């Protein structure tokens, strides 16, 4: 297990180098004329990056019920800055998890910076990106642990035509700083439907598989409405498919993009 965790750092470093060295062709990256695309409310992140010179803030509040314990989580904030070259810098800020009923840990989560890069020269209608990040041990130990947790994510989407889109994400996280470190693999798959010029709805499957313990699986449903091309409100709700997952969860959010910063 120690060898597996030791390999996490060079894997993450190689991914960051790939992100920073990739050079997309001109005109292939998203720009400020396009509508806001967020990493929420689905677990599957957007496969597109933020336009260059744009700052996007994505915020939400979630209520989760699991094993007789209700937890309120918020504000769940992700900041995304478009760097150009189809690359962005993103940071997950600490949010507070507090038990509303039952017994469980309370406190702040950790800060998690990352780089995200959108690949070029893919078939028409296909979008793929890679995110390489690191969760820092800045939050409550009972919530975030005491180690540095690197992760890789590969979100993708495929346009199916007539307003339908398929998408998914494969994530791998190396949990360190625990008596028994673990590797977590989380696949997700969704179907999205554009129901109007400003609104989308989706249905999503989420799996959580560890090399230690039983997997957790859940279904997530939700949608988003774009108030303007740079503002979005969203909602989602879901339930677990087995005992290892949450009984149910609900959440709402608001996202905003600022363009032309330089």
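Q: What amino acid sequence fits the structure above?
A:
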């Amino acid at each position: 297990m120690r060898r597996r965790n030791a390999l996490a750092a060079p894997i993450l470093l190689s991914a960051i180098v790939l992100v920073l060295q990739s050079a997309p062709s001109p005109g292939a990256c998203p720009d400020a004329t396009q509508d806001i695309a967020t990493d929420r409310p689905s677990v599957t992140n957007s496969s597109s990056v933020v336009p260059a010179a744009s700052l996007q803030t994505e915020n939400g509040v979630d209520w989760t019920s699991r094993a007789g314990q209700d937890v309120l989580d918020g504000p769940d904030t992700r900041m995304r800055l478009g760097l150009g070259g189809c690359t962005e810098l993103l940071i997950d800020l600490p949010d507070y998890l507090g038990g509303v009923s039952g017994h469980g840990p309370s406190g702040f989560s950790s800060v998690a910076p990352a780089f995200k890069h959108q690949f070029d020269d893919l078939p028409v209608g296909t979008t793929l990106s890679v995110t390489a990040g690191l969760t820092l041990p800045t939050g409550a130990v009972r919530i975030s642990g005491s180690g540095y947790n690197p992760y890789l994510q590969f979100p993708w989407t495929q346009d199916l035509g007539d307003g339908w889109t398929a998408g998914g994400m494969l994530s791998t996280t190396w949990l360190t700083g625990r008596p028994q470190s673990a590797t977590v693999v989380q696949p997700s798959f969704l179907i999205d439907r554009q129901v109007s010029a400003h609104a989308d709805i989706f249905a999503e499957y989420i799996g959580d598989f560890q090399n230690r313990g039983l997997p957790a699986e859940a279904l997530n449903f939700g949608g988003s409405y774009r108030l303007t091309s740079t503002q979005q409100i969203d909602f989602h709700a879901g339930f677990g498919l087995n005992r290892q997952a949450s009984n149910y969860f609900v959440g709402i959010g608001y996202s905003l993009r600022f363009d032309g910063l330089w």
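Q: And what stands out in the fold?
A: The helical segments are 2-21, 141-144.
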